[in-house]
């Protein structure tokens, strides 16, 4: 489980930072806690929207990627510090990373109350519309007389305090697990992928056998497809069909397109099948994806498509080490969307990027650090086959 801990102070010396650092170190076997600073977050100003600035986006992305959030707040004048309030304003203005995110509050202060009033205010803020965080109720950790609480190594001195902090964190971990399970259960189940392309979409060419070896010729005749020196107007230019073919064939990678109906419609035919990283042949074009993969790989193919179709990710990458140590081959599966944002298929591009890396290292005089073999042999052949290529004949 990955949590992020937000230091609720922009002070150079902060006991709340010390508390989060202690938690990150002490409970490392239990959970990963990354401590995040807010010192570089600009003061909130509604008239000057800095939502897309690097510091705010960095914090936003860290929160979105985390399973839960811990906020450590001091108490200033019976409430949270202005710096923390400003951060929460940014995180509820045009972005909302804390929405439905499990949050735990901890706090340290010089006095006996241990930031109790600040924590009460923070709970109300986190519950506000636009923030909508999910704060675990009744799970408070209030560290009072903080100047005396830590030793010179940044560890809590009192064993009872350590045990109580551990108990609150364990409860929060259980809370995060439960919330994430409920979120997962609430997600609509993706429909099984029709890898046989038995349905149709607006661009499906009907009354042509998808498995026909001359599907391209039959389909072209059916729809009156243009070719040769006929011009095609694109969204950012005008090219002839020949120029489009030249352009795609010049790409230093293998390109494949399969539409949202899971029909294999195109590849940039540059090399013969036995010379390609993922072999394809002209007679496969037009086939359903189920005809282009071995049976054992279909489950992996379906997983990749559903990741892209549902928006879980825009790109799936798979390292394929079976081409030997002299190549770094990566299969990239990029989601394609229409102008309205609807899923429109997959752009699979396969690239050996070792020549690019070698060129860059030569130009800059830099070297790779670490075990190169760890990169080139981390995956098994079976794993690569599970998702590789839109057209592995099997």
TrEMBL record:
Q: Which GO terms describe its cellular component?
A: cytosol
Chain segments annotated as coiled-coil in the UniProt record = none
Where's the NADPH-dependent FMN reductase-like domain? 1-146
Q: Which SUPFAM superfamilies match?
A: Flavoproteins
Which Pfam families is this protein grouped with?
FMN_red, PAS_10
Which InterPro entries does the record match to this protein?
A: Flavoprotein-like_sf (IPR029039), FMN_Rdtase-like_dom (IPR005025), NAD(P)H-dep_reductase (IPR050712)
Entry's Gene Ontology molecular function annotations:
FMN binding; oxidoreductase activity
PANTHER family named in the record: CHROMATE REDUCTASE (PTHR30543), NAD(P)H-DEPENDENT FMN REDUCTASE LOT6 (PTHR30543:SF21)
Q: What is this protein called?
A: NADPH-dependent oxidoreductase
């Amino acid at each position: 489980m990955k949590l992020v801990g937000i230091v609720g102070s922009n002070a150079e010396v902060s006991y709340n930072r010390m508390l989060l650092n202690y938690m990150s170190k002490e409970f490392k076997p239990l959970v990963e806690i990354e401590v995040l600073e807010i010192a570089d977050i600009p003061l909130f100003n509604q008239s000057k929207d800095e939502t897309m600035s690097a510091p705010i986006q960095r914090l936003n992305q860290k929160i979105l990627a985390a399973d839960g959030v811990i906020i450590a707040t001091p108490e200033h004048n019976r409430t949270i510090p202005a710096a923390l309030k400003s951060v929460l304003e940014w995180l509820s203005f045009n972005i909302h990373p804390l929405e439905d995110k499990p949050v735990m509050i901890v706090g340290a202060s010089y006095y006996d109350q241990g930031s109790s009033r600040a924590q009460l205010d923070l709970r109300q803020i986190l519950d506000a519309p636009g923030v909508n965080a999910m704060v675990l109720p009744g799970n408070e950790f209030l560290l009072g007389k903080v100047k005396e609480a830590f030793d010179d190594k940044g560890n809590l001195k009192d064993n009872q305090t350590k045990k109580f902090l551990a108990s609150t964190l364990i409860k929060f971990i259980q809370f995060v697990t439960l919330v994430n399970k409920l979120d997962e259960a609430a997600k609509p189940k993706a429909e099984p992928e029709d890898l046989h392309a038995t349905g149709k979409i607006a661009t499906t060419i009907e009354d042509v056998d998808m498995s026909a070896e001359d599907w391209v010729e039959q389909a072209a005749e059916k729809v009156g497809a243009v070719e040769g020196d006929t011009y095609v107007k694109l969204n950012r230019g005008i090219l002839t069909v020949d120029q489009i073919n030249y352009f795609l064939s010049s790409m230093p990678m293998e390109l494949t397109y399969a539409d949202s109906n899971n029909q294999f419609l195109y590849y940039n035919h540059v090399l013969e099948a036995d010379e390609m990283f993922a072999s394809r042949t002209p007679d496969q074009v037009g086939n359903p994806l189920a005809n282009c993969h071995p049976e054992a790989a279909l489950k992996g193919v379906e997983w990749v498509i559903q990741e892209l179709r549902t928006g879980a990710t825009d790109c799936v990458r798979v390292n394929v080490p079976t081409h030997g140590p002299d190549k770094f081959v990566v299969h990239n599966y990029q989601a394609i969307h229409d102008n309205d944002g609807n899923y429109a298929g997959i752009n699979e591009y396969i690239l050996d990027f070792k020549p690019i890396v070698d060129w860059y290292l030569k130009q800059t005089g830099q070297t790779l650090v670490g075990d190169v073999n760890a990169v080139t042999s981390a995956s098994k052949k079976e794993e690569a086959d599970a998702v590789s290529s839109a057209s592995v004949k099997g």
